[in-house]
Design goal:
This protein has 330 residues and is an alpha/beta fold. It has 2 domains: 182 residues, Rossmann fold (3-Layer(aba) Sandwich); 136 residues, 3-Layer(aba) Sandwich (Rossmann fold), CATH 3.40.50.460. The protein contains 10 helices and 13 strands. Helix 1 packs across helix 9 and helix 5 packs across helix 6. The chain is elongated, with a radius of gyration of 21 Å.
């Protein structure tokens, strides 16, 4: 019997547990035992393990988050981190590793391949910004939350003649803002890929007023860049172990600027972590289940240092190096 190790790293999203369930259940049918590592890459560094049997994953298909926990631990920033991982994998008799996460988590899996670790990656991020796959786990569920929020904001914006700004996640890619804005009928959509001019937004709202539209809905990605600031707006300057600052505040910045120009109320709603929580959408449940099965299949076929990727209706292996070598802008 082979032994698979599995971990979940980075920001969570609905659908992760569906992937874990699939890995354990399909692995069991293929005579593969599953060992879960807790708290992302911290798990194999500190040998934090949880054996996962079929009964352990019963009932988690519809549960958001991850039963293994997560973290933003970077083994390459931890003293002897890589060596400790290698010792843990040997101690636990792990034949191959499945890493579920975004570009940071998958990037570690790719770098560990240089040290002999046999790994398969599963893309998971609500930002949907991992290259070489049509969709990542979590995007569909987050999109449903955003669309529902816009539907609700429309009624109060119309009733009170307000400008309502919805800030959503999206560090470097505007998939959530763009798709959510289109699906929710936003009047202005601001994404990281295109710097925006506050005055242009102002003119758009005034134009709507001349047409008898006394309200406007604006959706803005956290990574959207006003031309006036020469860069993204940072909520916290302190960086995490992968060198990222926490973005945020673009919605409030825009509201402050528009309030000085408009004779109508401007309000901001930041969905923040609501986008990551809750029950996964049907699409995410199916995608995660298929990714989990494919990860086991690729490992049994000895296809390592690859990522499961959705191409049309097919799940295919793509080299992690290619998936991580370029961004996936809108």
């Amino acid at each position: 019997m082979l032994r698979a190790g599995v971990l979940t790293g980075g920001g969570d999203s609905p659908g992760i547990n569906a992937a874990l369930r699939s890995i354990v259940r399909f692995g069991f049918k293929q005579n593969v035992e599953t060992i879960g590592f807790l708290e992302g890459w911290r798990g194999p560094i500190e040998d934090l393990v949880r054996p996962l049997g079929v009964n352990d994953v019963s009932g988690i298909l519809t549960v958001g988050g991850t039963i293994l926990g997560s973290s933003r631990t970077n083994p390459f920033k931890v003293e002897n981190g890589v060596e400790r991982i290698l010792r843990t994998l040997e101690r636990e008799k792990i034949d191959f590793l499945i890493a579920i996460g975004g570009d940071d988590t998958l990037g570690v899996a790719h770098r560990l391949a240089e040290h002999g670790v046999k790994a398969v990656g599963i893309p998971q991020t609500i930002d949907n910004d991992i290259a070489m796959t049509d969709y990542s786990i979590g995007f569909s569920s987050a999109l449903e939350v955003i669309t529902d929020a816009l539907d609700r904001l429309h009624t109060t914006a119309f009733s009170h003649h307000r400008v309502l700004i919805l800030e959503v996640m999206g560090r470097d890619a505007g998939w959530l803002s763009l798709f959510g804005g289109v699906a929710g009928g936003a009047d202005v959509i601001l994404i990281p890929e295109r710097d925006f001019d506050v005055e242009e937004v102002h003119r758009k709202i005034l134009h709507r007023k001349t047409r008898g539209k006394h309200f406007s809905i604006v959706i803005i990605a956290e990574g959207a860049k006003p031309t006036e600031t020469n860069g993204q707006i940072v909520a916290e300057a302190e960086v995490d172990e992968f060198g990222h600052v926490r973005l945020g505040g673009g919605g409030q910045y825009l509201a402050n600027q528009l309030s000085q120009r408009l004779e109508m109320p401007v309000r901001v709603t930041n969905l923040a972590y609501l986008q990551r929580g809750g029950t996964p959408s049907p699409f995410d449940r199916i995608l995660a289940t298929r990714f989990g099965v494919a990860a086991i299949e690729f490992a049994l076929e000895k296809k390592f240092d690859v990522m499961t990727a959705l191409h049309g209706m097919q799940i295919e292996p793509v080299p992690l190096e290619e998936a991580l070598s370029k961004p996936r802008p809108v």
